[in-house]
Amino acid sequence: MAHTAVGPERDLEHTQRSLLLGILLWFLNLNVAYALPSLACRWGWLSFGIGALSGLQVVETIITLVTIPLMLLVIYLPGRAWRRFQTEAPVSNPHLLRDTEKDRLPLVAFVVTLLNSAFLLFVLASLVPTVALNVCRPS
After folding, report:
1. Which of 41, 56, 61, 79 has the largest CB neighbor count within 10 A?
2. DSSP single-letter state for residue 94
3. Total number of domains constituting the chain
């Protein structure tokens, strides 16, 4: 695939931004998930309920559900760049993963895609205790 000089540079910028945004999104989601319960329980915030879920659980779930599509975007952009950086057509290349490490650009894009995918798994896993546990329940 022939690229102009602007294409790979733009893809590399998107990849670098995706790395930073993926880390930032995961960090913010994680810190909100851990800070919000202690604040809400201590000062009685979010005392409403929707169905079987407390207000705190609803708010944490909404925050996580907003984070998920943003994480999918920062996975998609470097994934698309990774495929563009390949020297051969990705569909006809049986050694796509092995050829990724031949050049720095596809390797960086691939690592960013995997790292952001791991962050997405952590965000999804954080939904389990959010929905399953009611942290403000008196003991």
Report:
1. 56
2. T
3. 1
Instruction: Tell me, yes or no, whether 45 lies in a domain.
Output: yes
- Prediction pTM value: 0.78
Give the tens place of pLDDT for each residue, 111-124: 999 999 999 999 99
User: Taking a C-beta distance cutoff of 8 angstroms, is the pair 14, 78 a contact?
Assistant: yes
CA distance 122 to 130: 13
Question: What is the domain extent for residue 14?
Answer: 7-132
Distance, in Å, from the CA atom of 135 to the CA atom of 38, rounded to the nearest integer, reads: 9
CA atoms within 13 A on the CB side of 51: 4
Nearest one of 43, 37, 48, 47 to 130, comparing CA atoms: 37
Any domain includes 137: no
Write b or e for each residue in 25-47: b if 16 or more Cβ atoms lie within 10 A of its Cβ, otherwise e: bbeebeebbeebbeebeeeeebe
18 forms bridges with which residues in the sheet? none
Q: How many CB atoms lie within 10 A of CB 12?
A: 17
